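Notes continue from the previous slide.

Worked example: a multi-chain complex. Inputs as given:
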Amino acid sequence: MKVLEARNITKTFPGVVALDSVDVSFELGEIHCVIGENGAGKSTLIKCLTGVYEPDEGEILINGENAVRNKALFDKIAYVPQEIDLFDHMTVAENLFLPYKKSGFNGRVNRRLLNKRAMPILERFHIQADPDALVKDISVSQQQLLQIARATVNDYEVLMLDEPTTSLTTKDTEILFDIVRQIKSENKAVIFISHKLDEIFQLGDVITVFRNGVKVAYSDIKSVDIPWVITKMTGRELDYNQVFYSDKVSDEVLLEVEHLTGERFTDISFSLKKGEILGFAGLVGAGRSELMQAILGYLPVYSGSVKLEGKPWKFGDTNFSVNNGFIYLPEERKSQSILPMLSVRENISISALDGLASKSGISRRKERELAQQVIEDYDVKTPTMEREIKFLSGGNQQKVIIGRSMRCNPKVMVFDEPTKGIDVGTKTQIYRMMKQLAEEQGIGIILISSELEEVMKCSNRIIALYNGRKAGEFDEKAEKEQILSCILGVKSNEKETIRA
Amino acid sequence: MSKQTRRNGNSILSALKKSNLTVIGGVLVLMIILASIFSPYFLDVYNLQSLIRDLAFIGMIGVGQSLLLLIGELDLSVGKIASLCGIMSGMMMVHWHWNPFLSLIAAVLFGLLLGCLNGLIITKLRLNAMVATIGMQGVYGGINLVLTKGKAITNIPSEIHFLGKGNVGYIPVPFIFTLVILVFVLFLISKLKTGRYIYAIGNNREAAKILGIKVDKIRIIIYSIVGFISAIAGVLYVARLGSAQSSVGENWPMNSIAASVIGGVALTGGIGNPAGALIGAAIISIIQNMIVLFGVNVYWQSAVSGFVVIIAISFSSLSTIISERKKRKIKLSNLEQNQ
């Protein structure tokens, strides 16, 4: 029986169609796997199905009733987010039943009663923690299980698990799978979102594949295999007329990284040539940003070495890195990159204050000239240079940031998800900018992107990371399937079946 | 429209929008007018001079404090640094018979060191500024008591009394110090790299670090400046009283923060202008002056002035609350129209 159904839903954001006329339905007593690359529309779908977003078109039916009109129906959907989202300084039992009113506790909350009701639930989920223990003191694995347990405390019909195994050990993954099968046998619907193909084949009944906001395939899981899924995920339509790799890669090695290890990455070695665009592909959390932030000096390095133009590197000092031409453009523009309440002018000049000095301190005239030049050179759309940068669109903020970085005499520039949340037209502009920087100024460019197509379009070479380790290195002729299997951590024997 | 006029128009407009100085300046003028209507004594030269002498102290510390607020931190030990440096100067002058002016300079430099110590503790041990400076306030206050055993150091040489009690023309000398400090701070924030970095750190500390700004170094510099300014206030107060006392500056931390906030400097950092702190200090001083002029019962004065300060501080948050309500109304009415 169909318990949750999305009919023809479309959701657009400025410049992007995140979901395009998607039909999908979930049945009781079935484990339904949803898979797709980053940016394929999974997150938007989840947000529509849990009532966070309202679709622009189409309807969402829960037990046949329109849930967009009657939001209370969304209470039937138990959603477990990917990140652990618990109250660290409260007890295990408290976390299970918050908010109390919803869990049937009225008036005074009695800790003994709370713990008594918690015990059977903890046992069921194999959480070997005292209900009185604080959440921050139990293991990550148990926190993850607790989070799932919490979602099932109240009346629900659909359990939605978003990448539930990323922080679980193998043993706890088994426990989780047993629980999920049990939940299925209780005639509930389970939606399982994961990048781990082997898990999907172990657990799932049916599978839906998304690509670029479109549902591209739906099948019974028994009748398909891993290569089928990968083919469906990638598609084949990479447009080779639209490539942006650098045509002027020099032989001179600019950056050499050897056996670098930090908290989230292990034993990474690579080199970058002058004028080259080097892509870093991988899933979110594969350790790509952390690696670059560690070279920058923002995060700690445990061991290994870095050389820029043959000179040894100083770790843990962002000032040193920037002065020596290693520039990092963060993924999180809002929290790590713009100075939100300052003007476009001040956001530009902050990187170039040495060049603006006059006898009486910073020269306003020179500062305005610089800002004007950057605005014109990089085609920044802003009413005036005095506009606070937080009011600019993401694409224009990104252009300001690229423009100001050019004032630091960059040798290596790291673009971390440079087109995240940016419309299609501006995306192409940013690709062209990277190509130009590499070719005309001989800057070595590192591109981190979770959109495999973007990496393939722009990079001369591609390095794939999986779980903090280097999983493969490819040149521009590499096949999309090969890279994708590396990113997804498919083992080598499975890779051969893909080629065959 | 020529480029020149457009540019000027923009910068003036944005400057007005950003600092809110015009609004606060307007409030100040309004208060002066109201005060002079309600009390015939307000515009009396003697009253004005004593008012300005009071506001000079809150004002200079407020200007320093606003620098810290701009990076999202604060220093609650300013009062105790001031009194400790005052006592140090008193001991040098009276007990050790140093040259009075040399003593003042030494004490002010000592304040710079204390501020630097605050900064080092907060950055190197990664402490929360508020908690750390509460702790340091206890330490400095304790040293005060050890040094003085609770007694004031009297017989401060009369050569330096003019620094606290004197006037140049009609203007009280401490206020001249305040103005000089303000000019220095304004130059720092608008013309020097350090000043720009202060705003960058206050806006987005992570971004500042990624941009290669030496965040901790800038923080230590600001704490040192605040210590330096507090010490100047402390020794000038010794000159004003003619004695060095450990009780000086008890309410300076709170008043300096209130002055900055009334002056439009955000507690969360990144927004505001130190000049606003001086206007804020003037507003607080007029409130306190009015309470005295209206003959409010001595025992009620502190409660009333605290209450009025709360009202003054809430102006800025009130405007956000009102604009949020407006947004909600507009959105809801749009929705209704669509249905």
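Summary box: The interface with chain B takes residues 293, 296, 298, 318-323, 328, 330, 335-343, 346, 349-351, 353-354, 360-362, 368, 384-386, 408 of chain A (CB under 8 Å). Chain A has two domains: 2-234, 253-499.
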